[in-house]
């Protein structure tokens, strides 16, 4: 962490970058805001200056017209200042709100570019804090920088000119407190930094507990984990409360320091000026002193804000740093500069000597050489952890293999644009994810410009139309949070309808392992048969029916392909792994096997 003495060079660069990136876009608002602030600074100084004329006219004035002119000037100064304050807020809040939305868009765009690996390394609660809190921190820093260094600084300079002009000796006496105030604030800075970082991580923990509660509520209830969750939440909430208190105390601690110093300075000035009046030193001394003391009193607030600016910047910089961390985080998966679209083809997929590991010391796939024939169904089978899902992850280019090549219709995936690759594929997974919205919306995600007829045809082909028609609002029924208003089998059929609508020539299917009731299972099986027809299909197969209808079966073990062939060929291998897996399932009487299918297989 940087020393407390100065804002670190890295932070200065970030602030500069933040200002540069945001100033151009919102120049109109900022220029309006800056002009308003200059007017505020000028009118504030003028209001101190005019005290001289007020006192002079009242005490010694013989010309009533001058008195009228002075009072008109006073009114004008205050009216102008009032309008300038309005425009300052008007312009700066527009710029500020626009910065927040701009930064949030930028962060989200960057997150969208990141590969799956990034999301595994970063907790979603942490990302949430970054999108919500940190974008606001960026706005605050820009606001603080501009108001402090334009409005407050110019006000202070204007008032200092008034003071020096009115009485040089008193000015020097009063200004001795400046360096003392600076020393006082420095003491506070260091602690604020550490506390802010900790407070943010506690806020992240609150969000994490809340997310886990919402997603895992069934498990929490079933295992009576309410107490445990409450304890976690309580701890996080207390941490935030404690740190917020400490930060507030520290920020407030600048007040007694500043008030004491200001009190001493003003008392000193009163003493000195009293002496001058008593001994009649100087011309129009009373008028001068009124103007001087007004300027000194007006100086206090902006000077305090300037002295405090580092504490404020320190607090905000934690969020800004976190924001730039995300914006500058290298992309885990990049599209090649000269990437080409994947041309329409039959959908043949080849793995050539592919090796892959998620983490350095654990190789998950080892030298895979394999072809998935175009227009045919290939089933991947093998024990849990053998690498089946990883094969699919690589095929969709969610990760890149460390070694070897994957080609679709002869084109290397690394030389292919993400969009064209993903457009050629549909994916139906074990856990169907549904987005907040209607049934229609969720199906249409397969092809956003689909017509109503196409959506209904896809739902019919997926055996989903009947149940959808029976829902309260038919296709307009809201599916709830991640489809919570639908059953597992219904959700799966919606996913199949989505893939039907997409009508891509490669289909990737991760079959559900969880048991469905037999009617649901039959409907899904029938829908899948329709979906997989004449498509290159790669399926992680758990059901015997799927394996039996596959054109090719690939058996995996410990990241290697140990057998491949048709069902018949593999069963003929008495000592083969497939034969072993098959016998194991058969003898356990797993209900996914049906007698007639087993007879067929033999
Ligand atoms: N994101 C990840 N980070 C690190 N290791 C992972 C990750 N995903 C999977 N693995 C590891 O890679 C290996 C292969 O996992 P994979 O999910 O491909 O197996 P699988 O055959 O699909 O298993 P299952 O049938 O249980 O789904 C396992 O040892 C697993 O622990």
UniProtKB/TrEMBL annotation:
Entry's transmembrane regions: 29-52, 64-84, 149-166, 172-189, 261-281
Q: Where in the cell is it found?
A: Cell membrane
UniProt entry keywords in alphabetical sequence = ATP-binding, Membrane, Nucleotide-binding, Transmembrane, Transmembrane helix
Pfam families in the cross-refs: ABC_membrane (PF00664), ABC_tran (PF00005)
User: What InterPro entries does its record include?
Assistant: AAA+_ATPase (IPR003593), ABC1_TM_dom (IPR011527), ABC1_TM_sf (IPR036640), ABC_transporter-like_ATP-bd (IPR003439), ABC_transporter-like_CS (IPR017871), P-loop_NTPase (IPR027417), Type_1_exporter (IPR039421)
**Gene Ontology MF terms in the entry:** ABC-type oligopeptide transporter activity; ATP binding; ATP hydrolysis activity
Q: Out of the domains of life, which is the source?
A: Bacteria
Per the record, membrane topology reads:
Multi-pass membrane protein
Q: Which SMART domains match?
A: AAA (SM00382)
Function summary: Part of an ABC transporter complex. Transmembrane domains (TMD) form a pore in the inner membrane and the ATP-binding domain (NBD) is responsible for energy generation.
Q: Which PANTHER family did the record assign?
A: ATP-BINDING CASSETTE SUB-FAMILY B MEMBER 10, MITOCHONDRIAL (PTHR43394:SF1), ATP-DEPENDENT PERMEASE MDL1, MITOCHONDRIAL (PTHR43394)
Give the similarity note: Belongs to the ABC transporter superfamily.
Q: What name appears for this protein in its UniProt entry? A: ABC transporter
């Amino acid at each position: 962490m940087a020393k407390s003495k100065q804002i670190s060079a890295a932070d200065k660069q970030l602030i500069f970058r933040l200002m540069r990136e945001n100033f151009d876009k919102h120049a109109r608002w900022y220029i309006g805001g800056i002009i308003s602030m200059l007017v505020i600074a000028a009118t504030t100084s003028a209001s101190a200056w005019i005290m001289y004329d007020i006192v002079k006219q009242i005490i010694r004035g013989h010309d009533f017209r001058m008195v009228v002119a002075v009072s008109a000037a006073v009114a004008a100064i205050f009216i102008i200042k009032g309008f300038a304050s309005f425009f300052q807020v008007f312009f700066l809040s527009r710029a500020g709100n626009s910065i927040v939305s701009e930064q949030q868009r930028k962060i989200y765009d960057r997150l969208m570019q990141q590969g799956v690996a990034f999301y595994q390394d970063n907790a979603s609660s942490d990302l949430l804090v970054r999108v919500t809190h940190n974008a606001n921190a960026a706005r605050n820093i820009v606001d603080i920088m501009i108001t402090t260094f334009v409005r407050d600084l110019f006000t202070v300079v204007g008032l200092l000119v008034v003071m020096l002009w009115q009485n040089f000796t008193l000015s020097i006496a009063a200004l001795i407190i400046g360096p003392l105030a600076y020393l006082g604030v420095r003491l506070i800075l260091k602690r604020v930094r550490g506390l802010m970082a900790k407070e943010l991580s506690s806020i992240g923990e609150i969000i994490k507990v809340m997310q886990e509660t919402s997603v895992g509520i069934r498990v929490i209830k079933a295992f009576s984990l309410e107490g445990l969750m409450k304890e976690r939440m309580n701890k996080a909430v207390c941490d935030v409360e404690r740190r917020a208190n400490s930060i507030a105390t520290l920020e407030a601690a600048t007040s007694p320091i500043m008030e004491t110093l200001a009190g001493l300075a003003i008392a000193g000035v009163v003493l000195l000026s009293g002496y001058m009046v008593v001994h009649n030193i100087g011309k129009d001394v009373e008028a001068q002193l009124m103007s001087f003391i007004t300027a000194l009193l007006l100086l206090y607030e902006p000077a305090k804000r300037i002295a405090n600016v580092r504490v404020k910047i320190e607090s905000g910089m934690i969020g800004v740093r976190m924001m730039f961390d995300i914006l500058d985080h290298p992309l885990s998966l990049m599209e090649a500069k000269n990437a080409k679209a994947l041309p329409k083809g039959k959908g043949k997929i080849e793995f050539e000597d592919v090796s892959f590991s998620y983490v350095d010391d654990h190789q998950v796939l080892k030298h895979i050489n394999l072809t998935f024939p175009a227009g045919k169904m290939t089933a991947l089978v093998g024990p849990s952890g053998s690498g089946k899902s990883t094969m699919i992850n690589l095929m969709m280019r969610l990760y890149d293999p460390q070694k070897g090549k994957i080609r679709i219709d002869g084109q290397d995936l690394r030389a292919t644009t993400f969009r064209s690759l993903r457009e050629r594929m549909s994916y139906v997974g074990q856990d169907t994810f549904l987005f907040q919205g209607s049934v229609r919306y969720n199906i249409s995600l397969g092809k956003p410009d689909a017509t109503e007829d196409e959506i209904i045809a896809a739902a019919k082909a997926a055996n989903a139309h009947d149940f959808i028609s029976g829902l309260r609002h038919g296709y307009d029924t809201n599916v709830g949070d991640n489809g919570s208003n639908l059953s597992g089998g219904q959700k799966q059929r919606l996913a199949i309808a989505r893939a039907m609508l997409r009508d891509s020539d490669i289909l990737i299917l991760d079959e559900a392992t969880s048991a469905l009731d037999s009617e649901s299972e039959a409907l899904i099986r029938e829908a899948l048969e329709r979906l997989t027809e004449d498509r290159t299909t790669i399926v992680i197969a758990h059901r015997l029916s799927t394996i039996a209808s596959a054109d090719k079966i690939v058996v995996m073990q410990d990241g290697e392909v140990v057998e491949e062939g048709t069902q018949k060929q593999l069963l003929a291998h008495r000592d083969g792994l497939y034969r072993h897996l098959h016998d194991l399932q058969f003898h356990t009487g797993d209900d996914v096997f049906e007698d007639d299918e087993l007879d067929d297989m033999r």
